Amino acid sequence: MTSNRSAIQRFLCAVALACGLFPWPACATQLTLALAEVVGFYPAILASELGYFEREGLQVRVIRCINGKRCLKHLMDGEAQLSTTADLPLVFAAHEGKAFDVVATMSTSTKDNMLLVRGESGIDSAKDLRGKRVAYVAGTSSHYFLDTYLNFYGIEPASVQRVPIDPTQLEQLIQANAFDAAGLYEPLGSRARAMLGKNAKALHNPRLYTPTFNLISVRNLSDADLVKVLRAISKATDFINNNPQKAQALLDNESFAKSAKIVSLDQYDFDLKLSQTMLSTMEAQSRWAIRERLVDNPVAPDFLAYIRVEPLYALNPRAVSLIK
Question: Any residues with CB less than 8 A from the CB of 279 and at least 6 apart, and which?
């Protein structure tokens, strides 16, 4: 009797999915996604909020995180099968020998990072950063951006007072006047700027670094399930690109990530892909981390081995442009 009931349930689930109906909870694959409240991951936020995952036969539980570094920890700790994470935390994880797969890049941005300064700090250009307290979020794109920025302008990192900060304490640190300038990713940059008001200004950004906002999975997740996840995110990406005003309005709505509300979507290029640029960025970050002695393992990992092309290639072969 139990066998017959299971067979009937599988048949009904297959019919529901084939007809484009919302599946019953018993039919849906259950996954947990660690989702950063960062605009670069907006396609995944939309896929969750607008029910695109459910339409693919998935029941996705979301864990909200302050940034991709924290989301990746949820995955490494076994609390999630999927994570949204920018490139740099992946580089550190690979150097530590952690196991994960990069499944796709959701977006890129040349405007996600900024060098924000307090008006009364006396900082008018990059050279004025010498001797100043410059904040950053260690182990994130903020960290790499700041060092890249200083290097571009020929400023020795030792000549500035670098201040690692906890992003959850941003408001308290600003009120305490804990730093003169900060290399920040969004939405931290826009939040800090809003808190400082007229006392804030951003230095020129030569756009030396283009972070990638990626979907990561555990290695035992099936290609079939990942294709469903990617299809849902692809639909959300199309929604953003085809309806930019509606997408921005949804972002500004109270039901979405409040920390991201003040960021404009036109700062990002939303395009589901796997590119050679992402691989090159991670390799450059690895060389930087080794040079700065930020990792214990001085041997660069084979980052190509961490990229899983099959699910995205099955969904859209043209979205995969790296050589593997």
Answer: 303, 304, 307, 322
State the amino acid at position 196 in one-letter form.
Answer: L
Q: How many CB atoms are closer than 10 A to CB 200?
A: 17
- Paired with 315 in beta bridges are none
In contact, 112 and 267? CB cutoff 8 Å: yes
Name the burial class of residue 205, with classes exposed (0-12), middle (13-18) and buried (19+) by CB atoms within 10 angstroms of its CB. Answer: middle
- Which residues, other chains included, contact 140 with Cβ-Cβ below 8 Å and sequence gap of 6+? 67, 68, 69, 86, 88, 89, 185
* Tokens describing residue 274: 């796997």
User: What is the rounded radius of gyration, in angstroms, for the C-alpha atoms of the chain?
Assistant: 21
Q: How far apart are CA 28 and CA 22, in angstroms?
A: 9
What is the spatial distance between Cα 258 and Cα 97, in angstroms, rounded to a whole number?
34
Q: Say if CB 51 and CB 280 are below 8 A apart.
A: no
The tokens describing 10, both together, are 């599988």
d(CA 269, CA 292): 30
Over the chain, what is the mean pLDDT?
Answer: 89
CA 306 → CA 94, 144, 164, 222, 229, distances in Å? 8, 20, 28, 16, 18
| Helix, strand, or coil (residue 304) | helix
Q: Which residues pair with 82 in a beta bridge?
A: 33, 217
- 8-34 pLDDT tens trace: 555 556 565 555 555 555 567 899 999
Structure tokens at 207: 């756009």
3-state secondary structure of 80: coil
Distance between CA atoms of residues 52 and 61, nearest Å:
13
Kindly state the average pLDDT of the residues 110-130. 92
pLDDT in tens, 210-222: 999 999 999 999 9
Q: Which residues contact 141 (CB under 8 A, 6 or more apart)?
A: 86, 87, 88, 112, 113, 185, 209, 211
- pLDDT tens digits for range 274-296: 999 899 999 999 999 999 899 99
Name the amino acid, one letter, at 187.
P
